[in-house]
């Protein structure tokens, strides 16, 4: 089982509605492929800026990469 949490509700909604840009379509395709295998993926929302250790760490990594000009993939 894999649980992916994000504080970006609009991104989660675009994935759940299966609408959006090419990146959303690629993510949906990967999620569907993994779900049809032995892996189960759930994507959920988490409140941002709420002292959640994992979310704060992910945000600090993203900010660091943005300053360096290195994309986070």
Explain what this protein looks like in three dimensions.
The chain has 73 residues and is an alpha+beta fold. It has one domain (2-68). 52% of the residues lie in helices and 14% in strands. It has a two-stranded parallel sheet. The radius of gyration is 14 Å and the shape is globular.
Short description:
This protein has helices spanning 9-16, 22-35, 53-68; strands spanning 2-6, 41-45. The model has no long low-confidence stretch (mean pLDDT 80). Strands 1-2 form a two-stranded parallel ribbon.
Per-chain topology:
Blueprint: E1 2-6, H1 9-16, H2 22-35, E2 41-45, H3 53-68
Parallel strand pairs: 1-2
Protein name: RNase H type-1 domain-containing protein
InterPro entries: RNaseH-like_sf, RNaseH_sf
Organism: Caligus rogercresseyi (Sea louse)
Roughly what percent helix? 40-55%
Strand order across the largest sheet: 1-2
Largest sheet: 2 strands, parallel
When the domains are counted, the total is 1
Q: What structural category characterises the helix and strand content? A: alpha+beta
- Gyration radius over CA: 14 Å
Gross morphology: globular
Q: Identify the quaternary structure here.
A: single chain
- Percent strand equals 5-15%
Unreliable sequence segments: none
Order of helices and strands: EHHEH
The mean pLDDT is 80
> How many angstroms separate the termini?
21 Å
Number of helices: 3
Instruction: Give the tally of β-strands.
Output: 2
Organism: Caligus rogercresseyi
Protein name: RNase H type-1 domain-containing protein
GO molecular function, one term: nucleic acid binding
InterPro entries: RNaseH-like_sf, RNaseH_sf
């Amino acid at each position: 089982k894999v649980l992916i949490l994000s504080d970006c509700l609009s991104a989660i909604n675009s994935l759940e509605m299966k609408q959006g840009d090419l990146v959303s379509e690629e993510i949906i395709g990967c999620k569907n492929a993994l779900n049809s295998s032995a892996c189960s993926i759930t994507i959920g929302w988490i409140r941002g800026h709420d002292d959640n250790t994992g979310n704060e760490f992910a945000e600090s990594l993203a900010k660091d990469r943005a300053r360096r000009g290195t994309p986070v993939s």
